[in-house]
Amino acid sequence: MPLQSNVDVPPATGKLGVLLPGMGAVGTTFIAGCLAIRKGLAKPIGSLTQMGTIRIGPRTDDNVPLIRDYVPLATLDDLVFGGWDVFEDDAYVAASRAGVLEGHLLEQLGDELRAIKPMTAVFEQAYVKNLHGNHIKPETSKWEQAQALDDDINRFAEENGCDRLVAVWCGSTEVYREPTAVHETLAAFEQGLKDSDPDIAPSQIYAYACLKRGIPYANGAPNLNLDTPALLELARQNGVPVTGKDFKTGQTLMKTILAPGFKARMLGVEGWYSTNILGNRDGEVLDDPESFKAKEVSKLGVLDTIFEPERNPDLYGDIAHVVRINYYPPRGDNKEGWDNIDIFGWLGYKMQIKVDFLCRDSILAAPLVLDLALFLDLAKRAGMSGVQEWLSFYWKSPQPVQPGIYPEHDIFIQLTKLKNTLRHLKGDEVITHVGAEYYD
User: Would you say 32 and 92 are in contact if contact means Cβ atoms under 8 Å apart?
Assistant: First the structure.
């Protein structure tokens, strides 16, 4: 029998505070977009929670509601926005400087955006070498920084009348780091905070402060963060749902769309060369080799998981997979991702595919921030905790639900899992596409 559930999910009543560590291009594009949609100035294109549908029961029933009408999600009118940044610019100034949204749109949102001012950030130069801000917390002890964040969260919730909170990291990519002993247990991590252990990154301090208060958390960058035993222990202990990592937007989005198609048709891949040019703050940060390393690791893992070369050695056993990112200031937020894919088919005959994706990075990321905030809030109200594998749909490098289980990268499988999780919460039959009398 299909898996069913009788979860009684409380309604999304009251205000939902959305906290953003990092209020640059992605964060302000998200905030401004939500405000514009509220005012009827734009449509929530790209958001599964706002525009996506879900089929319930057999096709013959033609029961296909909007996801936002099917599960009890917070509405855009319920959202209040806050966050931290290393620059003191309010959301209007930050959005104007990011250059993502046109001035005439920002002017219509001016008063509301100007009222959203970032709190001082936890920052360590060693973790983001090409970022130089001065809106930094004065505390030098990492334990005191965590307590200062807790004070910020408490003050924000009180001033804005928030009934619930969620947090989505929208900050810069930190330098690549492997976990160390300080990340092994919660006790070791908390002692590391008190000792200001250099292996504890600023992004981990934000995650700790939020999880300690029971706030659901999403990691939008490839930083070593929620994927550590210490923070996962804290998430389980406090019953907090978490998800990450690294927003799946441009080039990796295309890979998770194209690669499953090649595999479905048993077409071989000899090589996949990817290069990116971008000029926003993200590009400047990634111009540092250590920060690029974190992004490279996140982007490289996609194809191995989809193609399963150990199971398909003749087709994918020796792929040359290369990823490059180049900082090119004139391009701004309008990133260009160029892919050359060398494939082969029947009798080994070779072919090529060229993809040139001129995309807008923050425009693709902003609706993901919205969806993740609303789905994490839903998960919290449903009593779900730990890694939310059903949200892997949104990530370049999704966290496995437990060690030893490989993460799913195929975007179509990810979407099926996401929708089946929603069906499960509602007690409806999951869609398996098995049984012609019901689904074919």
Answer: no
Q: What's 427's DSSP letter?
A: T
Q: Quick check: 314 pLDDT over 70?
A: yes
On whether residue 81 sits in a domain, the answer given is: yes
Q: The domain that contains 322 carries what CATH number?
A: 3.30.360.10
Element (H, E) at 83: strand 79-85
Number of domains composing the chain = 2
Q: 3-class DSSP state for residue 190?
A: helix
| Cβ atoms of 116 and 82 closer than 8 Å | yes
Return mean pLDDT, the chain: 93
Phi-psi region at 381: left, alpha or beta (left = phi > 0; alpha = psi -120 to 50): alpha
Q: Is 5 a member of any domain?
A: no
Q: How confident is the model at residue 279 (pLDDT cuts 50, 70, 90)?
A: confident
- What is residue 6's predicted lDDT score, i.e. its pLDDT? 65
Last residue of a domain, one of 358, 376, 410: 358
Residue 431 lies in a domain: no
Do 57 and 171 belong together in one domain?
yes
205, part of any domain? yes
Under DSSP, the state recorded for 428 is P
CA dihedral angle for residue 367, residue 372, residue 378, residue 381, rounded to 10 degrees: -140
pLDDT digits (tens, 9 = 90+) for 393-416: 999 999 988 877 888 999 999 999
SS3 390: helix
- More confident call, 66 vs 4: 66
CA distance readout (Å), 354 to 125, 151, 269, 351, 409: 39, 51, 13, 10, 22
Using the predicted structure, report yes or no on whether residue 438 has a pLDDT greater than 50: no
If asked whether residues 68 and 162 sit together in one domain, one would say yes
State if pTM tops 0.90. yes
